[in-house]
Task: inverse folding
DNA sequence: AATATCGGTTTTTTT
DNA sequence: AACCGATATT
């Protein structure tokens, strides 16, 4: 929509400006002219910069944006790349495919999936959906799910799919006489576990196809299947994508590797033309992959490090360029990282270096327990902020496993520090949100038995196990779907009036919702509103006495604002399109983008932290058994992966790194003594300045008590014998009510990220969503760190009984005409701001507001909790 | 059919 | 400690 020239500047005219500020290796990578390029990009070596410049360089040399496919692992990385490309080449960036593996595959399958039996409204099952399906299958086949847990079985199936092993092959090899979909089969004794896996795998795929559904791994595997079996499709994509870029290549699994090969047409037999850089040429596409084998941390999920190690053998005429200059960290931090990763065997030696100088030493701290560790971190954050002026958003706390966030969170709340927790239970995995989405899914795809059965009795309508069983039996007998069974409820034997009545009502409800959805397909937010009110989901929660349900209502309205945001940002929005974006979000997608400042300390797992950087990083839980994780300590290759994780963690820090540990840590409610992590020993001693070298208990045991500088301001805390959570009780934290804090705080204030899909915009983000025109949940101050407890008291908020549907989709009656550039407004969360832009889009009008330190936000007038001054 | 209670399991990391 | 599923109770 914008004229190209606006952002383009001289860049396209003068390619030299694309490389003039790069180092020799970077610029070689940008300019490299050839079929296959591996950029070995060490941490902080500017890989995104090189990747985007290389794309811009190609554009400047005559290739078309539409010929480019760039693949990342997270939506956030994709959005960031798109943004940076837009800065280089302007609106040309809109014509490229820049997306995750999974969304690229969805896009392909939506277009061409019918060739392999997928109708375009197909559902995408997440892990929970898949697990439900496995349980259903397990029950039908009489499988001992105690012994073979759904998780275990799904893990196996996932392995098969990541390796492109088809269920047909497995069946042929291990259970040749099983017919998927056959009724009455009982899994009795089997000679071989493989036999059981083969049968369940086949049955699982059968039911997925009956339900017109795919799981995450299917997105990749079935796209490969499509490209391999359908020449029109593979021809189309091979000629379309002449230049393929893959980020984080070390994390690709076998299926993804094959997918890239297929898309590029490497094995098509077409002859490569070495000079075929221009548009419309023949032969395999050019491939550029970027990665760092030292940052491979997803082997447990099927990532195959060999993909990157063997790149030169796999792709003809491949070239490798290493980027080893780090622009992020101090030499001290890099020395630590280099020393740790050097302990891994079988790796190509590589040394990062920096021109930034030595910097401050790494700070070490040995706490008595997790609470004290967290207390130390909170006090350091406070000190850094007040004494040294470090912004909260420039600090991050990282840990191995999500469970560790608990005590850290407590300490942050206690110290009144603003924080933001990334990950944990995802927004879309919350029960109430999943319920609402299950309705949408069932509307879009009535064959989706898993989601249909999920909502059958949600909210409670008197349809229990018996009713479900009757319908399922009928559907099975007649080889039809669960909902089709409901359609014929009067023909079901054993149906009593007491069941038939609510069942009929459910059928009618679904018909009405389906009709409504058909008429409002382009307005997902209205469909959401309709579902929430007509189904009774919202009402049930509003009527509830359970204080947790208040935040559930919050989450549901947030779902609706996410839908509103989606239809705002997406030109041709559909309900199915909305469901896609909800299915494919990652934790890291909720993080604020590069240019946004959340004003909060970020807390996340090391896995989530990959690709990010912070001036100050706290690496916590540096204990044997915590990190490295106990389950990874036995196995050499798993330990190597833990070490790479440590490498990732250390290299996130730009200026200051803290490593902390606890001598005692409670796991499963049990206090355990923890040894210092071996990774601490692997960091050269002189790089760490220990503020507290040993925990109190360790000191007594060790005998020698020499004078280390130990400003032991927390010493008092852990002296009690009971370390567990109760030791926290004497602080301002009422132990018993904590759970409620956690819920309402975490879910609505800090966890419920709203940025999703393409979204770096933040309409819904924390906009506490105007509810029936009175701002809901306003008891919370915008800044985190301060928790306004929502006890059972504010039940008064149950009032808006009046037509919740219209209330949710209505607006707060602000007129865009009343807003002008330069006007001042206040926002419930961000505070005072100045309008810098207005866009009149009728109902969906947008104002862009500068909130100073809180950044510039685009707000949808209709839903934003703002007031004009 | 819905709710209460007990007991066993759980935590690696996620598109 | 928290979550799930199975069992018992209404």
Result:
């Amino acid at each position: 929509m914008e004229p190209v020239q606006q952002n383009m500047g001289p860049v396209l005219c003068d390619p030299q400006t694309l490389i003039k500020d790069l180092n020799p290796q970077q610029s070689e990578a940008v300019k490299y002219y050839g079929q296959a390029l591996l950029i070995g990009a060490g941490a902080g070596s500017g890989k995104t910069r090189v990747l985007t410049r290389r794309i811009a360089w190609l554009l400047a040399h005559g290739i078309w944006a539409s010929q480019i496919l760039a693949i990342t692992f997270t939506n956030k990385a994709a959005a960031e790349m798109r943004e940076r490309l837009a800065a280089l080449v302007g609106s040309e960036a809109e014509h490229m495919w820049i997306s995750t593996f999974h969304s690229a595959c969805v896009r392909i399958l939506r277009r061409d999936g019918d060739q392999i039996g997928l109708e375009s409204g197909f559902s995408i099952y997440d892990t929970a959906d898949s697990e439900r399906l496995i349980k259903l299958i397990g029950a039908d086949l009489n499988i001992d799910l105690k012994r073979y847990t759904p998780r275990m079985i799904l893990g196996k199936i996932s392995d098969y799919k990541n390796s492109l092993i088809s269920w047909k092959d497995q069946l042929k090899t291990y259970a040749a006489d099983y017919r998927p979909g056959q009724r009455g089969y009982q899994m009795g004794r089997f000679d071989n576990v493989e036999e059981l896996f083969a049968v369940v795998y086949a049955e699982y795929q059968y039911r997925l196809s009956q339900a017109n559904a795919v799981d995450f791994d299917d997105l990749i595997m079935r796209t490969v299947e499509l490209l391999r079996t359908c020449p029109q499709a593979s021809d189309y994509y091979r000629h379309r994508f002449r230049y393929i870029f893959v980020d984080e290549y070390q994390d690709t699994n076998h299926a993804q590797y094959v997918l890239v090969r297929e898309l590029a047409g490497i094995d098509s037999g077409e002859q490569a033309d070495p000079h075929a850089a221009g548009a419309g040429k023949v032969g395999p596409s050019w491939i550029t992959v970027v990665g760092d084998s030292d940052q491979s941390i997803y082997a447990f999920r099927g990532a195959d490090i060999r993909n990157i190690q063997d790149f030169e053998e796999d792709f003809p005429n491949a070239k490798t360029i290493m980027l080893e200059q780090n622009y992020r960290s101090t030499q001290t931090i890099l020395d630590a990282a280099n020393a740790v990763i050097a302990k891994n065997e079988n790796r190509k030696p590589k040394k990062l270096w920096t021109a930034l100088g030595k910097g401050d030493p790494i700070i070490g701290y040995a706490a008595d327990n997790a609470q004290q560790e967290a207390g130390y971190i909170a006090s350091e954050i406070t000190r850094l902020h007040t004494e040294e002026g470090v912004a909260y958003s420039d600090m991050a706390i990282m840990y191995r496993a999500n469970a560790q966030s608990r005590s850290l969170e407590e300490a942050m709340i206690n110290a009144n520090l603003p924080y933001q927790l990334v990950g944990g239970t995802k927004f879309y995995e919350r029960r109430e949100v999943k319920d609402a989405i299950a309705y949408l899914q069932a509307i879009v795809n009535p064959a989706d038995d898993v989601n249909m059965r999920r909502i059958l009795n949600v909210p409670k309508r008197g349809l229990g196990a018996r009713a479900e069983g009757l319908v399922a039996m009928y559907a099975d007998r007649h080889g039809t779907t669960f909902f089709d069974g409901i359609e014929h409820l009067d023909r079901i034997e054993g149906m009593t009036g007491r069941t038939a009545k609510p069942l009929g009502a459910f059928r009618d409800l679904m018909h009405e919702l389906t009709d409504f959805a058909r008429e409002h397909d382009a307005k997902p937010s209205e469909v959401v509103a309709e579902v929430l009110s007509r189904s009774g989901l919202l009402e049930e929660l509003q009527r509830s006495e359970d204080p947790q349900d208040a935040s559930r209502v919050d989450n549901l309205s947030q779902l609706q604002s996410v839908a509103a945001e989606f239809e705002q940002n997406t030109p041709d929005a559909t309900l199915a399109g909305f469901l896609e974006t909800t299915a494919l979000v990652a934790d890291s997608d909720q993080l604020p983008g590069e240019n946004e400042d959340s004003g909060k300390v970020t807390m996340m797992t090391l896995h989530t932290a990959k690709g990010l950087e912070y001036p100050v990083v706290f690496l916590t839980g540096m204990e044997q058994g915590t990190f490295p994780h106990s389950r990874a300590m036995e196995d050499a290759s798993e330990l190597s992966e833990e070490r790479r994780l440590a490498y990732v963690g250390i290299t996130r820090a730009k200026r200051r790194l803290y490593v902390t540990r606890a001598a005692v840590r409670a796991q499963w409610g049990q206090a355990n003594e923890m040894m210092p992590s071996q990774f601490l020993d692997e960091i050269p001693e002189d790089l760490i300045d220990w503020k507290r070298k040993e925990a109190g208990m360790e000191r007594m045991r060790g005998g020698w008590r020499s004078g280390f500088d130990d400003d032991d301001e927390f010493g008092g805390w852990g002296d009690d014998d009971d370390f567990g959570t109760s030791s926290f009780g004497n602080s301002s934290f009422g132990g018993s009510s904590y759970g409620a804090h956690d819920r309402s705080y975490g879910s609505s204030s800090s966890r419920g990220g709203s940025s999703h899909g393409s979204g770096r915009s933040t309409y819904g983000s924390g906009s506490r969503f105007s509810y029936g025109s009175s701002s809901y949940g306003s008891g919370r101050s915008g800044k985190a760190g301060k928790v306004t407890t929502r006890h059972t008291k504010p039940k008064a908020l149950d009032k808006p009984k009046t037509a919740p549907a219209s209330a949710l989709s209505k607006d707060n009656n602000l007129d865009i005409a009343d807003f002008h550039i330069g006007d001042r407004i206040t926002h419930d969360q961000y505070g005072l701001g100045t309008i810098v832009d207005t866009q009149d889009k009728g109902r969906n009008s947008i104002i862009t507001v500068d909130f100073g330190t809180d950044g510039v936000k685009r707000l949808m007038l209709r839903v934003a909790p703002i007031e004009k001054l």
